[in-house]
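Write out a record, fold above all:
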Amino acid sequence: MNHKNLENIIFDLGGVIINLDVNSTFQKLSEIFDIDLKTESISDLDNFGFFQEYELGRIGDEEFRSNIRQMAEVSVSDSQIDEAWNAMLLDIPTDRIGWIYEATRKYNCVILSNTNAIHVKHFEQFFSDVTPYGHPKSVFQNLFYSHELGERKPNKAAFSYVLDATGFDPEKTVLFDDLTDNLASANELGILTEYVERNNLKRDQLLNLDGR
């Protein structure tokens, strides 16, 4: 899609930058708890209210883990819970991060993600380990995490926060996201949008945004 006068990109994290498979976490938890947990999509996490509370920063790591333990009838360590919780975060393909880095040389780029402290710690360490760029802050102009903002997508307040904090003109800003609800909400604020098929960001989609 040709977005003229584009200056800024807002990237979702899971499913756009880092590959995501929520089922991997549910499978791990099922193995640990010896119970059958199933999910069809990431939105199914909202069926467990404390997941959303954790993403909004209303509960901390220990209360989150305590809620996870209440789902089981066996003793589970912090490390087992963290390992299962992080299982949904997969790899960052080398070619994809190269395209993204190339885009950051051309546009102001930030991340806006519905996420939490355990995932952020894992992602930032993994990004440092597997890419040549070190910490994500060395690549992206800013990192906006829902548990720090107290707002999450698709609430328009999350996008408004980013626009206010960065000074981005929404008409010169595009959101890359794999969830249509998020794209629709951003579009209501005048932000341009690009739908990314989960875990399948394409080079042309990213580097030919403005037709240049």
